[in-house]
Write a structure and sequence with these properties.
Blueprint (H helix, E strand, L loop, with lengths): L1 E6 L2 E6 L6 E5 L14 H15 L6 E4 L7 E4 L5 E2 L4 E4 L4 E7 L3 E7 L4 E7 L1 H5 L2 H11 L7 E5 L9 E2 L1 H7 L5 H4 L3 E4 L4 E4 L1 H11 L4 E4 L24 E7 L9
Parallel strand pairs: 4-6, 4-8, 5-7, 11-15
Antiparallel strand pairs: 1-2, 2-3, 3-16, 7-10, 8-16, 9-10, 9-11, 12-14, 13-14
């Protein structure tokens, strides 16, 4: 279940499924990346410094990336704390943190309480079609996680109500997805000839395929709730980003089952 909370005076969205973990999804109240809104650059930079201070982490322990709508996932276990051409970051060490940025694309936070590892994934339609969420789960399992111990929180993103695509994109998104399960994740509009796709539901289905069944899905559509979240479609591309934030704490602070 998702709920709004306060992060030192900033409005954020959290999931009860990850209760106890240091995580949240930001809102318009707390931009960490300005996108095309250059007027928000100074505010975003100040907010990143604020996050580092309140998360009590070394600046070099905050891992970031240049997102390119890929299925590339990197493991944050070295000295390099910025990754190019990357849309997923896996954290394996205590006192490290990451955030990725979104404006309609689907944000996913993964966390394994037993191994005290996790990650953040940027799943737009291209990343979803390329199964970036499954790639992230595979990396976590290679690092020792059992799928049944991985929890996933799918944050606010564009909803089925507002995400219409042509047949070519529809076919790419649902390529390899179980046909029976797929029926719950889209509808077809005869009048417009468009498919309306529930990207959050598709990501849940693909996570379930990896035996990750503890999945919390936010009901918020970024386009419909544009007063709370940034939306690329609603704002015609001229928008900042909201973010999915995760910190891996020391084991005595980790999420309780």
């Amino acid at each position: 279940m998702f709920y709004f909370d306060d992060f030192f005076g900033k409005k954020v969205l959290k999931s009860t499924l990850l209760e106890g973990c240091e995580h949240f999804f930001t809102t318009r109240d707390f931009p960490l990346f300005q996108g095309t809104r250059e007027d928000l650059t100074a505010i975003a930079e100040k907010n990143v410094d604020f996050l580092i201070e309140k998360f009590d982490i070394n600046k070099n322990s905050l891992y970031r990336c240049k997102q390119m709508h890929t299925a590339n996932v990197e493991i944050a276990d070295g000295e390099e704390n910025f990754f190019d051409n990357t849309d997923g970051i896996i954290l394996t060490k205590p006192e490290t943190a990451t955030f990725l940025n979104f404006a309609d694309c689907i944000p996913i936070i993964l966390y394994d309480q037993i191994e005290n590892t996790g990650g953040v994934v940027h799943a737009g339609w291209r990343g979803t079609a390329a199964k970036i969420q499954q790639r992230a789960v595979k990396i976590l399992t290679e690092k020792g996680s059992k799928p049944e111990n991985i929890r996933a929180a799918i944050g606010a993103g564009i909803g089925k109500c507002c995400f219409d695509v042509n047949e070519d994109v529809f076919l790419k998104i649902f390529d390899g997805v179980d046909e029976t399960l797929a029926k719950s994740a889209y509808s077809f509009d005869d009048k417009s000839g468009k498919y309306f796709v529930d990207l959050k539901e598709v990501n849940k289905i693909l996570l379930n395929e990896m035996s990750v069944h503890k999945v919390d899905v936010s009901g918020y559509c970024t386009s419909c709730s544009n007063d709370v979240f940034f939306s690329y479609r609603k704002e015609n591309g001229d928008t900042a980003r909201h973010s999915a934030v995760l910190k891996i704490s020391k084991k005595d602070k980790k999420c309780k089952l």
